[in-house]
Design goal:
Distance between the termini: 70 Å
Strand order of the largest sheet: 8-7-5-4-3-6-9
Structural class: alpha/beta
Number of domains: 2
Order of helices and strands: HEEHEHHEHHEHHEHEEE
Radius of gyration: 22 Å
Largest sheet: 7 strands, mixed
Helix content: 40-55%
Length: about 250
């Protein structure tokens, strides 16, 4: 091998080693990896803050509106959740041309899972149908997309599919499917999340949150779409904590 070829091989090896070191140190340098390219977190924040889209932590927003006396009612999937969406959708859309996405978490224990007789189960399913109808109507009149993240109970003998650290999950992290999915939507649309939650434990959610169901209610569809989400899947490995927007900064 000639000296020139040897020098070229050595140079390529040095460059490759340098790139490996940069990728490993990226989080320490305030740099993120997006689409195979190095992007500074400041640029990620600016892009999110100028995005036409917005994800909303709906229960967090509802508590805020109730506390500030802007709406009245009960929070858990009650009228106040729909009121919060109706109240805020138009205000949040001001200055935004994109999609406003409300994420709502259902109860961790559901009536239909606790009943054994067919009549009670039928009543519980009817209640679910009514809830879906209310969310679909709300999506239509508000022009917003609503995502209900529903607790998933595996069938007898079926594994829950948690990540390797699932056995050590905390109660908060295990119930954090709404926070995780809000982050997924923000990652997909490159936009911020409207919330008062600091999401300090977001990095751990992928390992601790059990698989769940997502019902998407869109203003242009007559019926919701159902999707299954497994946070431990490889597809969500690149999801990072989203850029957050405070309620005051959104005019609420």
């Amino acid at each position: 091998m000639s000296r020139g070829a040897l020098f070229l091989v050595i140079l390529v090896c040095i460059i490759a080693a340098g790139l490996v070191v940069m990728l490993r140190r990226a989080p320490l340098l305030g740099v993120g990896v997006v689409g195979g390219a190095l992007v500074r977190r400041g640029a990620v924040r600016r892009r999110a803050e100028t995005s036409p889209h917005l994800v909303v932590d709906t229960l967090n927003l509802t508590h805020h509106l109730l506390k500030s006396k802007q709406i009245d009612g009960d929070v858990p999937l009650g009228c106040s959740v729909l009121d919060a969406i109706d109240f805020s959708a138009a205000r949040l859309r001001a200055g935004r041309s994109g999609r406003i996405m409300f994420v709502v978490k259902d109860r961790d224990s559901r009536a239909r899972e606790a009943v054994s007789d067919a009549a009670a189960r039928k009543d519980a399913l009817a209640a679910d149908a009514l809830s879906h109808a209310l969310f679909q109507a709300c999506a239509r009149r508000s022009g917003a997309h609503i995502y209900v993240v529903e607790n998933y109970r595996p069938a007898p003998g079926e594994k829950a599919g948690l990540g390797q650290e699932g056995a050590r999950k905390t109660q908060h992290e295990a119930a954090g499917r709404d926070d995780f999915y809000a982050g997924v939507l923000a990652w997909q649309h490159r936009c911020p999340v409207l919330t008062a939650d600091r999401m300090r434990d977001f990095a751990d959610l992928r390992h601790h949150v059990a698989p769940f169901i997502v019902w998407e209610f869109a203003p242009h569809r007559a019926r919701p779409e159902k999707n299954f989400v497994n946070p431990a899947a490889v597809a969500y490995r690149a999801v990072r904590a989203p850029v957050r927007v405070a309620f005051a900064d959104a005019g609420l």
